[in-house]
Every structure is written in C-alpha cells, then in structure tokens.
Specification:
41% of the residues lie in helices and 20% in strands. It has 463 residues and is of the alpha/beta class. The strands form five sheets. Strands 12-13-14-11-10-16-17 form a seven-stranded mixed β-sheet, with helices on both faces. Strand 3 and strand 4 form a beta hairpin.
C-alpha cells in the first residue's frame, strides 16, 4: 500500500491504521494557470510593501498559526504519523520563526555600503518574483515555512507544491495565511502531477525554484530549473555522521544520539544516521545507547507519551526493511529491533546495528527511518575519514571534551553544518544546507533571506 497519488488525485492515508483520510483532485491546466496568475499579481503588490509592513504580516501569521495550532498538529499526526507532542512543537517553532524574521529581517535587507569612495555605491536586495517550492512530507509545516518566510519578507511570493500525502496540511497552512491578512497570491498552493511541476518551472512567471526531497527528485528538478535558466536551491538527503571520541561525556552523547536519530521516527534528512565511535568507548556507548533506545515508546501517535510513531508511507517502510535485511546479510550485528512492528499501521521497531563497516548498506545509503548504525573508529583521524566517506554532506556532530580538536575536525568535515557537543537542529539564526549529494544553496539566517534576491549594485556618478 502506498499513499502518494492516484492518476487523478493526491491521496492521504493515516499511517497509524491504513485508513484513507483525504483525496484531493489534481489541478487542471486552467487551474494551474489561475494559480500562477495570482502569484505574479500578488508579487506586484507585495513587493511594493515596505519591509516593515511585510514584517507586520509575519507577526499576524505567527498569531494565526498559534490560533489554529491544535488542528494543524492533529492534521500532521493524521497525515504522516508524527507523534502529537512533536507535531505541536513543530507549529510553535514555525510561529517563532515568523516572529524572529519580523524582528531581524529588515536589517538583513538594508542597503549595504561598498568600499567605493564617497559612499556613492551600494548593494540593494531586490525580490525576484514568485518562487516555486516543491516540499516533502516529514515536516509538513516547518519545511515549508523555513523556506517561505525568508523569501516572503524579501518581497517574493511563494507557490507551494506539497507532497501528495500531506495536502491537508498544505491547505490548512494556506488558510492561516488568509486569516493573517496576506495579499492574495502571496502564498499559493498548487496540487499538480509531476508534469504540472514541469509546466510551472518552465513558466516565465516563476522566477526560481526550491526543493527539499530525495537526490533523485533534486536531480530532476535541478535539471529542469537549469534548462529554464532559473536559480534553484536543493536540500536533499543525508547520512549524517555522529562522532563520539574517547574523552566524550558518554551520557550526554548517548542522550543526544538517541534524539538525533529517532526524533520524527528517524525521518529527518539531517538525522544522526551513522554513529562513529572511537574504539576506547564503543562498548560502553553501545550498551548505553541500546538501553536508552529500548525505552522509547512506540505506538499511537496521538498519545502524548509516544516518541516513535508510524512511518509516513507504507512503501518507505518496505524500502527501509529491505535495507535492514541487506545490512544484516552483509554481516552487521542486530542489537535491537530489526523488523516491522506487529499489528495494524505502518510501524517499524527502533533498530540498532553494531559492527557496521564502510562496505555495508546502512553505511553507504541513507536509511530514512528509525535505524541507527554504530561504526567503530580506531582514532579521531579514522573517525574523520569514515565521516567524510559518504556521498552526502548535510550535517555532522562531534562529541569530545577537547573543543580545540573538535574545531580542527570541523574544518575538515565535508558537511554544511557541524555541531560540537550537541545534535543537529535548525534555527533561524544560523544557515542550513548541504554539499555533495545533499544539495546546494542555503536556507535560514540572512543567507535564506538573500538567496532569492537580486543583489543589485547602485552606483551614483561613476566617471
């Protein structure tokens, strides 16, 4: 069973019980045309608003999100299985994102003086136009808004093509924008097939494209954006290393590793997927990690004490199980879990592998679910080598009391982010994005605001 789409509808299936909860007809060419027309018309109005007025709109959006937080959280839980406590946290994080950019965004868009004599040249940040955003299901509201809010405060408009299994979340989000009083067309939701996405990318009204998703999707969208000579940002997969050295505070490292791997049922691009542990502490770390993981509550995602909910799609659970079977056949040791949970729903047991090597499936591939791999490193240099031995480069973590060493290793890690003595998290104050097959471009911080801007040089009286 899958819950992606039929030929005519996007379909949403509750992964906790397999019941269909929504079906949404794909838009016709006429309906897509109307959406794009609204987006470009909205842009002509929205861009003319002062950045202060756009900031006020974001404050109103934060209020609207909080006002409908419970309904939105319940929709997230129903559509993709996120435990309700985590879903509520996602909505609050989005509200805080809006407020942060409302406060700090205007300064990021201020004209910048240059080194030209007499102050006669400056850089101005101008919006590009409607941005097409192709977004995933794993953070149905946060993934959308962490890209949309910086682009919107810069004066762009946003056209959201969401994952087919979370269209209920997409439409609730659109309603939040309406309640906040945004200009029509500033935030448009389109429900289209892949052919519809291609049509939108090629349309001259779309100024740029952003995608969060798989490597395969990124290659397809990136190629089409390139053919249309349009800028794109790609935030793709990850197989993030979590390095634990001999002198680390093991209790803190274990706590962070469990959260970093199993939050959102392990369905996080920047999750701590490869736990690379120095050999002097690997035995103790493994024992503590398995013990902590075994205590995670798996079950009904509407229960407040549940930490592991169902995986979002049944086909993805089948793929994860195949990867688990392959890794075991290659010689890994199964320390916990390793199979789909009994009963209805799309549950997979929290799983831990030991004795993983760099030739195994769980090392080479991204495992998008509640599976952790423990790899032994001879020393710090070997840990660095293992960490960089990946096609991906999204984020990484280092646990050690030797901060000077950690900072040296950070400079050699081939990832977009490095977290020393703390697990990966997204925060509007710092940028987020990857290298290698994890994509390119940046979200959040001032980089996210300026990513879809024309950095325009204005020079007065140059002779």
């Amino acid at each position: 069973m899958t819950n992606v789409s039929s030929l005519t509808h996007a379909i949403s299936i509750n992964p906790a019980n397999g019941e269909q909860i929504g079906h949404y007809p794909f838009e016709s060419e006429t309906e897509l045309e109307a959406s794009l027309s609204r987006a470009i018309a909205g842009f002509s109005i929205w861009r003319s608003h002062s950045v202060e007025k756009r900031s006020q709109a974001l404050v109103a959006l934060a209020k609207a999100l909080r006002g409908d937080a419970e309904a939105m959280a319940k929709m997230i839980t129903q559509e993709m299985g996120k435990p309700i406590t985590q879903a509520r946290g996602e909505i609050e994080k989005c509200a805080q994102l809006c407020e942060w950019y409302a406060e700090h965004g205007p300064a990021m868009l201020a004209a910048e003086p240059t080194l030209v004599e007499g102050g006669k040249a400056r850089i101005e940040y101008r919006p590009l136009g409607p941005i097409l955003a192709v977004m995933p299901w794993n953070f149905p509201v946060w993934q959308v808004l962490r890209g949309a809010v910086p682009a919107l405060i810069a004066g762009n408009t946003y056209v959201l093509k969401h994952a087919p299994n979370v269209m209920g979340c997409a439409y609730l989000l659109q309603e939040a924008f309406k309640r906040a009083g945004f200009v029509e067309g500033v935030f448009e939701v389109i429900n289209v097939t892949p052919d519809g996405v291609s049509t939108a990318i090629a349309d001259p009204r779309i100024a740029a494209v952003t995608l969060t998703g798989s490597v395969r999707a990124g290659m397809a969208i990136g190629a089409q954006a390139g053919a249309a000579l349009k800028k794109c940002v790609l935030e793709l997969g990850g197989s993030d290393p979590f390095i634990v050295l001999n002198d680390a505070d093991l209790d803190e490292a274990v706590k962070a590793a469990v959260i970093g791997r199993y939050q959102n049922t392990g369905q996080v691009c920047a999750a701590a997927k490869r736990l690379i542990v120095e050999q002097g502490v690997v035995e103790e770390f493994t024992r503590k990690f398995v013990e902590s993981t075994s205590k995670l509550v798996i079950g009904d995602p509407t229960a407040t004490d549940t930490y592991i909910g169902p995986m979002a799609r049944f086909d993805l659970r089948d793929e994860l199980d195949r990867q688990v079977r392959d890794t075991l056949e290659e010689g890994a040791t199964l320390l916990l879990g390793g199979r789909a949970a009994d009963g209805p729903g799309n549950f997979y047991e929290p799983t831990v592998f030991g004795d993983v090597t760099d030739q195994m499936t769980s090392f080479k591939q991204e495992l998008f679910g509640p599976v952790a791999s423990i790899i032994t490193a001879r020393d710090a240099a070997h840990a660095l080598q293992l960490a960089n031995d990946s096609d991906f480069g999204l984020a990484s973590t280092i646990y050690t009391r030797n901060v000077e060493l950690a900072q040296k290793l950070a400079g050699e890690l081939e990832t977009g982010g490095v977290f020393i003595n703390g697990y990966c998290a997204t925060d509007p104050r710092v940028t987020f994005g990857g290298v290698k097959r994890s994509g390119f471009g940046r979200e959040l911080s001032h980089f996210g605001v300026r990513e879809f801007c024309n950095a325009q040089t204005v020079w007065l009286d140059r002779h």
